[in-house]
Write a structure and sequence with these properties.
There is one protein chain. The chain is 78% helix and 0% strand. The chain has ten helices and no strands. Helix 3 runs parallel beside helix 6 (152-176), helix 5 (137-148) crosses helix 8 and helix 8 (193-230) runs antiparallel to helix 10 (249-277). 26% of the residues are buried.
Length: 286
Amino acid sequence: MDANVGSQPNRPLIGQAASPHRSVAGLAMSMVSRGWRDYALGAIVPVSVVVLWQLACAFHLVSELFVPSPLHIAAAFFDLFGSAEFYGDLRISLTRVAGGFMIGSSLGLLFGLTTGMFRRVEHTLDPSIQMIRMIPHLAVAPLILIWFGFGETSKVLIIAKGTFFPLYINTFLGIRNVDQKLLEVAKILKFSRWKLALRLIIPSALPYIFLGVRISFGLAWIGLFIAELIGSKAGIGFIIMRAQQTMDAPKLFAGVFLFALVGLITDSVVRSLERTFLKWRDSYQG
């Protein structure tokens, strides 16, 4: 037997599993690097657009009276954050969006569940809901203002009207796309109606429901903009309207980008929740 064998350092054999701590650390580093890589890829298009935009303004290819440079817009953006009134306007807009989204999405989820699970309810309610869905926001908003006045109620209802339909439709489709074979297995196992809904139908419909939530959040911001433009004395939409009246193009663009930024943040939060609740899903990731 070779005498040098005992003096050799302990090395993992070929095929032997590495230390669990080392493998977990390597997996974490891989996920972090992949996340930063994804962020970098997502920044390519907006950064390129901003650079080309700034160059076009610097070489006077566009008139800054109508299309201000990104640097001027950034200065107006930071001026907004330095204003004491801005935070009050932002709080009011966020409150309106939260209230409208909660009302519209809750009703959309409830009606989507009932029409999806009960065919008679579908035949009773769905035609009327689809007819109302086709009425444009701008056509409904003046009626809501006439009925409920220019207070907060009308603004919240305008937002709720837009958030209701995406969640209703996607919840309905999610329920109707549950695999029939799973329903047959549940029938064999003698699931009650409540157990069938909570253990099988709703979990299977979650991808559609989260898609509806994302679309509803986007339409909530559109509804907020319409509500605050029609009749409001505070809010982000009011900032944009006031900038339009004073021909303050940088502040107008800053208000528009603020809408986009807050909308992106809310969408990212929903996507994060979606990844958390749908870890069980084994689907193509691109």
